[in-house]
Automatic annotation (TrEMBL), chain A:
This is WD repeat domain 54. The keyword Acetylation does not apply. It comes from Pipistrellus kuhlii. Gene3D superfamilies: YVTN repeat-like/Quinoprotein amine dehydrogenase. It comes from the Eukaryota. WD repeats lie at residues 250-291. InterPro entries: WD40/YVTN_repeat-like_dom_sf, WD40_repeat_dom_sf, WD40_rpt, WDR54_beta_prop. Keywords: WD repeat. It holds the Pfam family WDR54. The keyword Transcription does not apply. Residues 1-335 form the WD repeat-containing protein 54 beta-propeller domain.
TrEMBL record, chain B:
Residues 267-290 are annotated as: Disordered. This is Organic solute carrier partner 1. Pfam families: Oscp1. InterPro entries: OSCP1.
Amino acid sequence: MFRRERSIPLRGSAAALGNNLCVLHLPVCNLTHFGVVHGPSAQLLSVAPEGVPLAQRQLHAKEGPGLSSPLITQVHWCALPFRVLLVLTSHRGIQMYESDGSVMVYWHALDSRDASPDSTQAVFARGIASCGHFICVGMWSGRVLVFDIPLKGPNIVLSEELAAHPASVTDIASEPAQEPDCMADVVTADDSGLLCVWWSGPEFKLLTRIPGFGVPCNSVQLWKGIVAAGYGNGQVRLYEASTGALHVQINAHARAVCALDLAPGVGKLLSAAEDTFVHIWKLSKSRESGCTEVEHCHGECVPDTQLCGARFCDPSGSSFAVTGYDLTEILRFSSE
Amino acid sequence: MSVRTLPLLFLNLGGEMLYILDQRLRAQNIPGDKARRDEWTEVDRKRVLHDIVLTMFNKSFIEELLKPQELYSKKALRTIYDRLAHASIMRLNQASMDKLYDLMTMALKYQVLLCPRPKDVLLVTYNHLDAIKGLIHDNPPLLHLVDETFRQLIEVYGCLSAGEFQLIRQTLLTFFQDLHIRVSIFLKDKVQNSNGRFVLPVTGPVPWGTEVPGLIRMFNSKGEEVRRVKFPHGGNYVIAPKEGSFEVYGDRVLKLGTNMYSVNRPMETHTSGTSKNLASQTQQSIAPNPLAKEELNFLARLMGGMEITKPSGSEPGFRLNLFTTDEEEEQAALTRPEELSHEVVNIQATQDQQRNQELARIMGEFEVKDQPRWSASKGDDLLAMMDEL
């Protein structure tokens, strides 16, 4: 069903982080951009259809006070209606670039005063998503920073700080297409497993809280009013965003889920975990009952590899790519 | 990333070091009455282990270690182990020290990678501590010292969340990233592939708190289960039988972190041809500042608590060789790949005029002293006669 395609070599191995692969598909020029975090650096690659790498660039976390080179926690492309920005989060702050990583347009330093003098917690930013003309970024403290992005230029403004999470933010997702009856725009997740569903606006409004009972939620997606969440105990759970009701519980993996991705047009969900497996699920909403249904489509094992990132490479969900800890290549699979 | 990682890294690596030294010293053991003056005896072995354990678990050192702090660089950590290995009458050449450190780090990398759940890194640590207690069981004051550390660990780590343990494990994995040295024991047991990567089994018990994969449960808006479907998950997992104990005494259940070196097991490592990713490794080693100033400060503070009992003037320092022969040790030193060189930094106390007296004194203790003139005697002849382990 799926076959291995040509791998894309990386200069540095992928770090053992969650959500450690981001993809930007550019149909106009038939190129795909990939981004992977190595550690103190992240690598961006431009790849042609057959997997031939054409160009690459390395970005580094901006230095600051501290013991050693700051580590990057995540890199992610934010596709806003009018522009695409590349966001990079680290232990020092938040860096935003033009989509090819050539120019840094904004730098937000983490306020070290946020950390108490004898802080027992590491300070970092993690969790990136765009919603309308906003970009949301999560923090070690549980706060979510909301940045207002102008049509062009570097005049980015911190518009709001959301305080709803008691633990470090892990991931943020936004609704790909606005549903008529649906108010849920953004979902944020944290290390305690708590999910917060928000309505975005000039001021963000908290709609629902979905507790996680201490098991970290590492990755989250939002689709047609359904929250899909991947947890540290290998489960993938689907909730009704507006009410927080549990719709589906999948004992999907034997180790922590590290990444989820969505092909919204076809309702496909991709889950990858540290157990070396990738699974593809078909989501659907039953019209009569209003229940959400899930069907398993495909499973793939990447032997001896603790996966750390996974993404669909095209909107139809017919190809995907994965990264693994210590692996110096991006593995690609295709069903066409 | 996590500021709670250093104690676990230090104690586990220290545990592995003791396993290896214990095994190596036992292998060269000569009954006391038959030993020549320059040969290792049971008494010597015990003394070396006791001296190292005493230094490792020194009260103020552990106190300093347990403070929340960022992880040190590989170079800085290696400096601590060099010092620790020389805390007694034993001396190691650079090549043997390199090999020792390679074995230590690859063993811990394997244990961290295969931990079923992040919190199990604590069980690995407790396994090491249990075994250390076994090595010094005939020394009650020392046992007490280790138990004290045990209690402090439970206090610090007992209340950490699953999320914090996840971060600790990620921090440890970042430390071990790109290390692919092949270890004979691992290759023989088929837990490591010939390319240096560890085997991740897809069978066996799932972690405690995880369900066996393969089930989809669907619910209606009232919360009632309406359908359940099985799917092929690809592995062959079973439910976890029981949880390991996090108390000072108890069945850990997990075997990772226990002593895998029995007297007759091989100890070779293969450094040639393992580093496929030269680029990332050389980037680390060509960093302009081997030990940044701030790291030096932290290290000095930490080492200040490490009281080294120096051998008295009349006692020789006995050399231990981690290889089978001296020639092999020399050869290993010459052929070690550039990117794997663990350079030990010689810290000059006079470099920074502004350092205070106390700091200068502590830093003076870092210098690896010249070997005593008679140091080569104990090991040489004996090693030449030993079979390959």
